[in-house]
Each structure stands twice: as structure tokens, then as C-alpha cells.
Amino acid sequence: MTQLALVIDLNVCVGCQACVTSCKEWNTSGIAGYLSDDRPYDADPTGTFFNRVQTFEVGEYPNTQTVHFPKSCLHCEDPPCVPVCPTGASYKRAEDGIVLVDYDKCIGCKYCSWACPYGVREIDEHQKVMKKCTLCVDRIYDQKLPREERRPACVMACPTNARLFGDIHDPDSAVAVAIRERGGYQLMPEWGTHPANHYLPRRRTEIVIQPDELVRADNPLKVDGKLPKPSLKEPALDDVTSW
Amino acid sequence: MQPAFSVIFLTTLIGAGQGLFLALYTVELYSLFEFLPAQPGPAFYAPGTALAFALLALGLVASFFHLGRPERGWRAAARWRTSWLSREVIVLPAFMAATAAYWLAHWADWREPSVALGAALTIAPSVAIGAAATVLAFALFLCTGMIYACIKFLQEWATPLTVANYLMLGGASGFTLATLFAGRTAPELVPFLGGWAAVLTGIGFLTRAASLARNAGLKPKSSLQTAIGVKHPRVVQTAQGFMGGSFNTREFIHGRTRAFLRAIKWIFLVLAFPVPIALLGAGVAAGSSTLLAAAFAAQYAGLLAERWFFFAQANHPQNLYYQAIA
Fold first, then answer.
1. What is the pLDDT of residues B144-156, one digit of tens each?
2. Which domains does chain B carry?
3. Most B CBs within 10 Å: which of A37, A76, A114, as the mutation test of the B interface?
4. How does the average pLDDT of chain B come out, rounded?
5. Torsion angle, CA of A116/A121/A124/A130, rounded to 10 degrees?
6. How many CB atoms are closer than 10 A to CB B1?
7. Which of A122, B173, B219, B238 lies most in the core, judged by the most C-beta atoms within 10 Å?
8. B140: buried, middle or exposed (CB in 10 Å: 19+, 13-18, 0-12)?
9. Interface contact A54-B246, CB threshold 8 A
């Protein structure tokens, strides 16, 4: 069974918001209608977004790390937002695991947003229906697009390749390998939602140097004349020790 | 959560309507078994049932104000297999229909026993309809409570006490209203209904106090650490991704101070429980409709505050992601 998902590498995300703007650009231009904004150039701007990039500071000064954290619908494998929907507008596709909202059935009761612990559903204040990330379902299957462009807009836009897209149930896919080999994890595992989107943790880049790598332990070629000389009674471990 | 007045009015109005119907049917059952003097049929039951129906209808109207697309509201009956909200959408009109049938049975004065229950017992149609409506009334309390209790990560709500509170507080306000109503139409019933109203209010106080005590000791399961998956004791948000508001900040954050919440809590603890019990006692003793009206008004106002507090107290885990603007 296919489960499409994003894998987001927090180690390389630089918080540039390119995924936010490209997501908004693509999804406000589609057949499903615009993603409404209000007062975009005034004091209190607001709008509907599928994707937000937040910033967190981890640690105590001076040992701090700034973590940029892109957040969108995680397309849970056991999505709590779907069974609570009274109309069936909120559903999870069997064929690829994408959680979607049928904008023509949604009554705008907001109950699904209450039932999502991650706060990734946003109501459109003008169309009055619930909206959320579609994994660019109108891009990824579009036969008219070149094959390399059949990816979500945010993935295409990411300049550091922090966003990987693929089928996490296919063990050979790049996303499954990344989760497996680079410590991919899920958000709020305590609620049993099994998010399909995974995050790759920050990794500190450091060189591991053992003390014996700094101090010369032996000197088989007798450079600089410092030969570790065993005593005469001891057997020589190599063939070059001489006395 | 940001309390929505549409839902506050919906739940308090239908709760009082359900309670009022249950009070009327309790009187009919007690009369049937001759624990109470038989009531004049159409003069007592029919207007009372009409009042209960009106409360339910008002609640239904209030619920539409919660919908972004009220014209599609009929679709909400589709997913009753999984959604408690969908179940409520079905049970509320069903209960209203049963209430209407109960009203019709009393208005047309069908009091002759004509529904046979086995060989020995034959009951009036109104009793049979009332039994069905009673089942639906309890089912509606269950649906309303479970809408909130089934969201497991809203820990303040995810408890059987939520259902118990909807049941007891709806029942209490309905019986208080029934006492007031009996004061006008059947004064001999006032001590009986007033007594039950006080008992239900007392039990409601116990269940609500129990949920307050439970919630005071709750430990949130989610933290910023689990929310972003960074295992470090000190994680602080420095930006939430936008400078203005969003649906996430408007819907889930009430923006009131702790002191305000505490004040609302004490207001409802006083207005919804001891004040109505005292006014009921005084009203029954003095035979005063004014005092009984004051009892219901105080209790309903208290329950509005209670419902506001119920929503405001629920701390949604998504708020972890919205703690700093920039």
C-alpha cells in the first residue's frame, strides 16, 4: 500500500520560507479556488496557508541551536481528523494515503481542526470550508508536467533539498531510506496518530579524534629515531624491531 | 480553546429542553403508577412539551451559526458510523420529532390505554411515545458529551465526567424550568419537581466539581519537545511563521487572563448550583413563581458561564506551536 509523505530534514532547513510561498502560490492558483488573505498590507494581516515555517531555539546560551521547523499536514496513517467529520468531507485516500478535504461537502463546522493535535487545518475565512495541505495532489499525478516536476510545490522550491517526497511504505524509496538510516521520527507520537510525514533530526558535525591518534603509539619505519624498544626478553610483535 | 457562543447556546438550550421533557415524562410515569395525583392532560403536558420543543429548536438554530456553510448542514448526518457529531445531528431531530409526537398525544388527549405491553399491561400512547423520547433524550446527552469526550488529546474533555456533566447539568436546568412551569400550571407538582431539581443540581455540582478537580491535576502529555521532536529540556519558540493572526491563533487561544478564567469559574460554581438550590427552596416554600423564575434564570446564566469555562479551559496541544509571534 502506498503512503505518500514528506520527509523534512531539520539539519539543512535554513528557514527561508521558500516552501511557504511556493505552496501558497501553487495552491491559491488551482481549480479549488484561492486561499484567501485579509489585510495583507495592513496592521493585522491574516490568511490561509497549508505550510508554515516556525523557528525554535534549543539549548541555553551560548550553547544554542536555531531550529527552523516547517509544519504542514502530516497525512497521518491513523488520522484523528477523518472519523470525526460528520459529512465525510474529510477523508484519507486508500490508493496513496493522502488526507484530503472535499471542499464541496465541507460544512465548515471546524470539528476536524479540533481533532487535529498538530493545528495544520485552517478554515478559509471567505469560502468557509476547512483547508489543508493536499501534497499537491493536482501536481504529482499531472501527466502534462515533465516527470521531474510531478512533485509538491514546496519540494520543488526548497533550495537546500530539506524536503524529500515519496512513498514511505516502499522500503527502497529515498524517503524510506532517509527515515531508516538518518533517524527519521514522527511528531507527538504519544497520540498514536502515526504521522506519515517524518522529520530528520539535527546532527552535529564533529570529528571524533581518539587520544592515540594524536600521540604516536608506534613507529614502524623508525622515523625520528623514537623506537619503542621492547626488552630483550620480550618477543617482538613486528618484523622490523631491531636491537 | 476559544469558546463559540453558538455552541454554548446550542448545548445549554437543548440540555434544558431535554431536561424539561424528562421532567414532564417523570411526572407522567409517577402519575401512571399513582405516586402522584393524575395531571390534567392537555393543560399541563402539551404546553410544557411545546416549551421543551421550542428550546430544542432554538438550540438547533444556534448550532447553524457555528457552521461556515449552513446550507450544507444536512450533509452532517452522513457519517454516523464514526462521528459523534453526525450522531448528534441525527438524534437531535429524532428527539424533536418524538417530542412533537408526545405533544400531539397530549394535545389530542389520547389517554385511553391502547398500547398493549404483553397480556397484563396496557398503556396510553403518550406513555409509549414518551418512553421512546426518553431513550432519545439520553442518547442525545451521550452524543453531545461524546463529541467533546472522544477527542483524546483535549485532556480536559477526554473523560466520562464530560458526558456525566452534560447529562446532570441539562437535567438540572430542565427540572428547574419544569418547577417554574408547574408553578404556573400545576402548583401541586411544585414541591415534587422542585425537590428533584435541587437533587439533580446537587449531583451536577458533584460531577462538575469532580471534573474541575481532575483537570486541576492534569499533566499535559504533549510538550514542545514532543511537538517538534527535539529532546532538550530547554526549547523556546522564537517565531511562529507569521506576524499577524491566523485561524490557529483565533480558534484555539482564548486570550484571557488566568484571573478572568478563575472569576468565570467561581461565577458558575455559585450561580449554577447553590443559588438555584436556595431559590428553589425559597420558591417552593413561599409558593412564589418569581423566586422560581429567578432560580431558573440564575441557573441558566450560570450554565452559560460553565459552558464558556468548559471550552476555555481545554488546552489544545496545537497551541504549543503558537507561543511566540516573532
1. 999 999 999 999 9
2. 5-320 (1.20.1630.10)
3. A114
4. 94
5. -60
6. 21
7. B173
8. buried
9. no
Cell digits of residue A243 = 636491537
Give the amino acid at A228. P
Which residues, other chains included, contact A10 with Cβ-Cβ below 8 Å and sequence gap of 6+? A67, A68, A69, A162, A199, A200, A201, A202
CA distance linking residue A130 with residue A114, whole number of Å: 11
Q: Which three cell numbers stand for residue A236?
A: 617482538
Are B229 and A53 an interchain contact pair (Cβ–Cβ within 8 Å)?
no
H or E element in which residue B273 lies: none
Angle made by CA atoms B101, B105, B107, in degrees to the nearest 5: 110
- B260's CB contacts (< 8 A; 6+ apart) are none
Cβ proximity of B157 and B149 under 8 Å: yes
Question: Among B204, B193, B210, which Cα is nearest to B167's?
Answer: B204
Q: Is the pLDDT of residue A219 over 70?
A: no
Cβ of B238: how many Cβ atoms within 10 Å? 15
Q: What are the two backbone dihedrals, phi and then psi, of residue A185, each rounded to the nearest 5 degrees?
A: -135, 170
Domain ranges of chain A: 4-200
* Whole-angstrom distance, CA of residue A83 vs CA of residue A104: 18
pLDDT tier at B124 (50, 70, 90 boundaries)? confident
The cell for B148 is 467533546
Of the two residues A216 and B67, the one the predictor is more confident about is: B67
> Contact at 8 Å (CB) between B194 and B289?
no
Give me chain A's average pLDDT, please.
91
Q: Can you give the length of chain A in residues?
A: 243
Contacts of B261 (CB under 8 A, 6+ apart): B309, B312, B313
B247 touches chain A (CB under 8 A): yes
pLDDT for the residue numbered A78: 96
CA distance A45 to B107: 57
E-state strands within A43-155? 46-47, 51-60, 63-72, 90-92, 99-101, 122-123, 130-131
Please report which residue ranges of A173-237 form alpha helices under DSSP H.
174-181, 211-214
Q: Give yes or no for B6 touching A (CB within 8 A).
A: no
Q: State whether A80 and B252 contact (CB < 8 Å).
A: no
Q: How far is B319 from chain A (nearest CA, A)?
A: 8
| CATH code that applies to domain A4-200 | 3.30.70.20
Q: Which alpha helices (H) appear in A80-171, and where do they start and end? A: 81-84, 111-114, 137-140, 153-157
The ipTM is 0.91
